[in-house]
Amino acid sequence: MRRPEEEAEASRDPQSAVSRRFASLGPDRDAGWDAFVVRAGGRHAQTAAWARVKAAAGWKAERVEVWKGDTIVAGAQIVSRRLRVIGRVGYLDGGPVVDPATVTDDAVVDEVVDAVVALCRRSRLRNLIVDPPAEADRLVDRMRMSGFVPSEVKTVLAATLVVDLTRSEAEILAGMRSSTRRNIRKGERAGTVVRRGGRDDLAVVGELFSATARRQGFAAADQDYLNALYDELDPLGRCVVMLAEADGVPVSAMLGIVFGDCIVYKRGGWSGTHGDWRPNEVMHWTAMQWAKHEGLRRYDFDGIEPAVARALVAGTDGPEAMHVTRFKLGFGGGVVLLPDSLALVPNRLMRFGYTAVFPRIKRMRVVKQAIKQLRSR
């Protein structure tokens, strides 16, 4: 195993100013990387702070950077862990990240894709799942040319809903469905109170998240993970906890992540009680008001059903939305379609097994458990 020291590799063209580095992670390196992710409009999942959050959940983070002269212009942060049966699997969430000023530079795009492939081989990953950034057609095309294929594992919903917070509060409300506005007013009249939460509230927040997970049949994040997430992101001003109370009792909670000019609704939970108080609607509306007051420009609901989203964008009839998507759509906002997940299997023999065999075994209990671990974003 190589030591995690910064290592530079010459680019394929000796005369080019583009170079590749397998970068060490640490305080002396992370600030420059995070500044690049912000400048490039990347996601919070590509930051060093998020790598530390994932490390608390048993993931290992590695990073490759592409430099042009003395400036980072592209890169990718991959987290990986060993899964039963499958082996070590990596996840690249919202990457590779490319500076918009250089996204049309073929040398940069080629170098970052080649660097990701090289990092997979260097780390002996059996499989890498990639959720590319939005509006990255050039990057996705280059990845497909390098052996990336559609992923059999869907880690995120390939569409989201974003509310524009630069509008006035009256305009934001007007953009909502009338039923959502009514529920907000009903909850406010009932006396629903929403407040910012702190670390002392995390146990209650975890209980509310678990209650929702039990009702909807998915695995909730454990308490240690929530604590680590808060401890890493709150000092940076990137973690927002909101609690909605009915008669002084917390009945709904949400965890939002602030990055750049956006707040992302990462997790939410509801006790299942006090429905007449409309705690979830009031909580999201209060969170939007808070974010707008803080100068943020976007409220990202972090996922709606892709088939519903595609129909909305096309202006055609689509499938009936499930409850969670229907709830989010009530707040208005714009639908954003995201690229489908990709996968890379560096070993060519295993690549055949992935494309030919994996679709047949992915419903096996042990494989489903491994996939759940990978989906724990």
N-C termini distance: 27 Å
CATH architecture label of the largest domain:
3-Layer(aba) Sandwich
The SSE order reads: EEHHEEEEHEHEEHHEHHEEEHEHHEEHHH
Q: Write down the overall mean pLDDT.
A: 85
* Beta strand count: 16
Radius of gyration based on Cα positions: 21 Å
**What is the CATH class of the largest domain?**
Alpha Beta
Fill in the CATH topology of the largest domain. Aminopeptidase
Fourth CATH level, the homologous superfamily of the largest domain: Gcn5-related N-acetyltransferase (GNAT)
Percent range of helical residues: 25-40%
What share of the residues does DSSP label as strand, in percent? 25-35%
Shape: globular
Count of discrete structural domains: 2
Low-confidence stretches: 1-6, 8-15
By helix and strand content, what is the structural category?
alpha+beta
Largest sheet at a glance? 9 strands, mixed
Structure annotation, total helices: 14
Strand-helix topology:
Layout: E1 7-9, E2 18-23, H1 27-39, H2 48-56, E3 60-68, E4 71-83, E5 87-93, E6 97-98, H3 106-122, E7 127-131, H4 137-145, E8 149-150, E9 159-164, H5 169-174, H6 178-190, E10 193-196, H7 202-216, H8 223-233, E11 239-246, E12 249-259, E13 262-270, H9 279-293, E14 298-300, H10 306-314, H11 323-329, E15 334-337, E16 342-344, H12 348-356, H13 358-361, H14 365-374
Parallel strand pairs: 5-7, 13-14
Antiparallel strand pairs: 1-2, 2-3, 3-4, 4-5, 4-6, 7-16, 8-16, 9-14, 9-15, 10-11, 11-12, 12-13
Helix pairs in contact: 2-8, 6-9
Describe this structure in words.
Helix content is 39%, strand content 25%. The protein has 14 helices and 16 strands. The chain has 2 domains: 7-156 and 340-374, 3-Layer(aba) Sandwich (Aminopeptidase), CATH 3.40.630; 159-337, Gcn5-related N-acetyltransferase (GNAT) (Aminopeptidase, 3-Layer(aba) Sandwich). The protein is α+β, with helices and mostly antiparallel strands and 377 residues long. Helix 2 (48-56) packs antiparallel against helix 8 (223-233) and helix 6 crosses helix 9 (279-293). The protein starts with 6 loop residues before the first strand and ends with a helix. The strands form 2 sheets. Strands 1, 2, 3, 4, 5, 6, 7, 8 and 16 form a 9-stranded mixed sheet that branches. Strands 10-11-12-13-14-9-15 form a 7-stranded mixed sheet.
